[in-house]
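Translate sequence into structure tokens.
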Amino acid sequence: MLIANKTENSVKISLIGEIMGDNAWMDSDAADFGLILAQADGAPLDLWVSSPGGSLDAAMAMRAMLAEYAGPITIHTAGRVASAATLLLCVPQARVIAHRGSIFMVHKAGMVSEGNADEMRKSADILDVCDDEIIKVYQIRLKCGEDELRDMMRAETWMRPEEAQAMGLVDEISAATSGGYVAELINPQPDRSEDIREAISACLTPRIEAIQTGLTSISASGETRVRAIQNAAESAVSGIVEASAKSATEISAAGEAIGKVVAEQLQILRDEIAECRRSYNKQAEKYAALDEALSRVYALSGGDINFFTTHDEDRRAKPFKLNV
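Result follows.
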């Protein structure tokens, strides 16, 4: 967590707790830290660090911002300053003061990784690169070679203030038990709750009244629209009923006319069928008379005359029936 306080002569910042990187819940501490330094605009800077470490990316970015800061920097340590938090102390132009109770720890970079063997080897390669860069940053302040640094990191080395001073991580050790920026953070701040409530009330009351007025107007307008819709609906229903009654009358009249025409046409068809029946019966009678005459001729000839007629047994008169 970052806490900043700007006075007339300096800017005081406290970094307390884990150094946060980008995640789904909050932005990186590096973003807020950069904004604070930009607003400080070169004023003398007092940075208090009490952190177990955290995001290597965010810590590296914050250290780089401090290294580029135009004004004087004093870094105070209190409590545990471990892992990535120790990188913030490696600023060339800064003076680092370790307060009593400070403890320091350096170790190799770590990460959470999962996957197959190739992906895990790739993660190990990434961590090797991180360790190389961490050593280069430590060499800005620590008075030891690369091999010794690697051994310290591999062993996860914890140091008292005196040991950190001997290694060059801090410049001096303060015996003060309170004061400075820590005291300002501990001292209770004046109760401003009533002022805040009054400010909120002054800001929100007019808006609430305007919203209530608007709701009343909307309600009245809504009732008017409801009545208009009801009237329109009743008028439409009446029109539909009237049109339906008229349509029923017209359909009934049209049905009667169609029925009359159909009846007339059926009667004409019945008459034509009857005429066909009468004509067929006459033709059947003629064929019957011809058959009888031919039979007589055949009998008189003694069967010596061969003749035929197209009116065979299948074409004799048969009952004719057509139902309509």
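Note: Helices lie at 29-40, 56-67, 117-138, 146-155, 161-167, 180-186, 193-300.
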